[in-house]
Amino acid sequence: MKNCPKCGTQCDDGAAFCNNCGASFDGGAANAQAADASDCTAEFDREDISANKVIAMAPYLMGWIGIIVALLAINNSKYVAFCVKQALKLEVCLVLSAFMCIVPFLGWLAFSVCAVIIFVLKIIGFFNVCKGKAKELPIVKDLKFLK
């Protein structure tokens, strides 16, 4: 049995493609993985991901309260810690963008746009957890805090 380089699923030794994700075993999957540098799924244990999906969803669904709940229930899960860091980046960005509300009208509009973008990023993070993926979220992945 060999493990898929993309998703970690065990496949037959003679298989050319993964039964789970369809990745090729000839090195094409490694190139695809390298092309998507934001995908960190291979760094985490599959059992850790499947056992802690519900806890990992909390920061995206419940904001600051979800972050606190996940930190209390983390149980040494690296996957949950990754999701908490991603959600924490979003919450910090939301708080910082709220300072734009000091400027009437234009600041309110800018904050509204930022809030919608952050909401969409939370949805993306939630669906990544549902799929068992550990992908850094767009826009905030380049922020250097909470590495």
Description:
The protein is mostly helical and 147 residues long. It folds into 2 domains: 1-35, no CATH class; 42-142, no CATH class. 54% of the residues lie in helices and 3% in strands. It has helices at 28-35, 46-51, 53-72, 78-98, 106-130, and strands at 2-3, 10-11. Strands 1-2 form a two-stranded antiparallel ribbon. The protein is elongated, with a radius of gyration of 18 Å. It starts with a strand and ends in a 17-residue tail after the last helix. 24% of the residues are buried.
Characteristic terms for this protein:
147 residues, mainly alpha, 2 domains, single chain, two-stranded antiparallel ribbon
How are the secondary structure elements laid out?
Elements: E1 2-3, E2 10-11, H1 28-35, H2 46-51, H3 53-72, H4 78-98, H5 106-130
Antiparallel strand pairs: 1-2
Helix pairs in contact: 3-4, 3-5, 4-5
Low-confidence stretches: none
**Helical residue percent band:** 40-55%
Mean pLDDT across residues: 87
Structurally, the number of domains stands at 2
Please report the number of helical segments. 5
Quaternary structure type = single chain
Strand order of the largest sheet: 1-2
Overall structural class, as computed from helix and strand content, comes to mainly alpha
3D shape: elongated
Strand content: under 5%
Largest sheet entry? 2 strands, antiparallel
Q: How do the helices and strands follow one another from N- to C-terminus? A: EEHHHHH
